[in-house]
Amino acid sequence: MPETEHVPKNALFGKYEIGRLLGCGAFAKVYHARNVRTGVSVAVKVINKKRLPSPNMASNVKREISIMSRLNHPYIVKLHEVLATKTKIYVVMEFVKGGELFAKVAKGRFSEDLSRKYFQQLISAVGYCHARGIFHRDLKPENLLLDENGNLKVSDFGLSAVTDQIRADGMLHTLCGTPAYVAPEILSKKGYDGAKVDVWSCGVILFVLHAGYLPFNDPNLMVMYKKIYKGEFKCPKWMSGDTKRFLSRLLDTNPDTRITIDEILMDPWFSKGYNEPKFHEEQVKDEAQVKSLELNAFDLISFSSGLDLSALLDESHDCGERFVLREAPEKLVEKVKEVGKGERLRVKKGKEWGLELEGKEGNFGVAVEVYRLTEELVVVEAKRTGSDKKWYKEFWNNKMRPALVET
To answer: Which of 55, 167, 329, 392 has CB atoms 3.0–4.6 Å from 384's, for a disulfide?
Structure first.
């Protein structure tokens, strides 16, 4: 790259001077950076190609970049450009200096008016996405940032879905999201409406902002899932009747009767003091720019065996995973035993429907627990117990998970 007295020697592609680390996950790090030409601050997500997970998931990265390139809303983080070297992908985004909303609410619950303000901004952004066939699917305070003016910015579209992922039954089917914010219909494994699960997550967020704690929470994950499935939550006594009524419509376990975005906009609690943000659609990147970004993203990842961007959000991805099945726990336990014996692993009985599989040297192993969620559904949870990460990934992805999912 050409170097001049105005461009720092370490400037990325001669354009961005990389600064402090803002955060990191299993396969990516996010840095503060400065555009050396304009002086404007940006955030750069650096994805290490060598540490990317399992094959056949390259579309996730392309989809996230494609989605972000089409979004231009005052309450959504903007994508500037995508760059790459042989070993890294750099996603250059708007820098939002106020940090996570989660950090602010962790210091104490918000008043009804402040909670309403942030909720109004969230719904404005989510409604904008839904109108364009985009569903976030991982809305939570950790993915909501605040700018220098105290306004909300929705970030992290790594788990987002678009309308072309909807199956013939009109539903999405991928199990994803953060446990405390996941909608009950996702747990049922029957397919779900992306817009309705986003509304549920928005309801959980509003409860957290105003009450200061989660509506559905328990140290035991299965107990928490059962509370979500049944819609069991209690509002604090001091909360206003109108807020309680509104929350009950957001956290309706029946997606068919749950309040919609259009109904939210008309609700008296929501509309109090609401001003829809003014911005011009012509500000949205023109079609040529969007196509250029999408093509660039495809070129960057097409050589790769694939990437699953959801793993960027979870630092424990290489040592554990969890999913829902419609199967008898006893049958799953027998299948785990069968696979373990086939691989000549020691099989130890755990508590209830749990087993530990271990290699002779003890340096590789996996613990599998099966929990009953409902009469028909179970949750399977797996954790690496040995030190050999490579063995665990290969064993789980190629042997154990296929055997369980195909039952």
So the answer is: 392
- Choosing from 113, 138, 156, 193, the catalytic residue is 138
CB 34 within 8 A of CB 41: yes
Residue 62 lies in a domain: no
What domain range is 365 assigned to?
322-405
Hey, is 394 helix, strand or coil?
Answer: helix
pLDDT digits (tens, 9 = 90+) for 313-337: 333 334 467 767 777 888 888 888 8
Mark whether 138 is an active-site residue.
yes
pLDDT value of residue 120: 97
Indicate whether 275 and 371 sit together in one domain: no
Residue 23 falls within a domain, yes or no?
Answer: no
Task: Say what the pTM is.
Answer: 0.68
Distance separating alpha carbons of residues 104 and 147, to the nearest angstrom: 12
Asked if residue 140 belongs to a domain, the reply is yes
CATH code for the domain in which residue 185 is found: 1.10.510.10
R_g over Cα of the chain: 23
CB atoms within 10 A of CB 249: 17
137 and 275 part of one domain: yes
Say how many domains are in the chain.
Answer: 2
| 45 marked among binding-site residues | yes
Q: Same domain for 222 and 171?
A: yes
Instruction: Tokens for 196, please give them.
Output: 């309705």
Answer yes or no: are the C-beta atoms of 406 and 398 closer than 8 Å: no
- Output the CA torsion 97→101→107→108 (10° steps): 140
State how far the Cα of 150 lies from the Cα of 142, in Å rounded to an integer. 15
398: exposed, middle or buried (Cβ count in 10 Å: 0-12, 13-18, 19+): exposed
Residue ending a domain, among 257, 281, 305, is 281
- Residue type for position 226: K
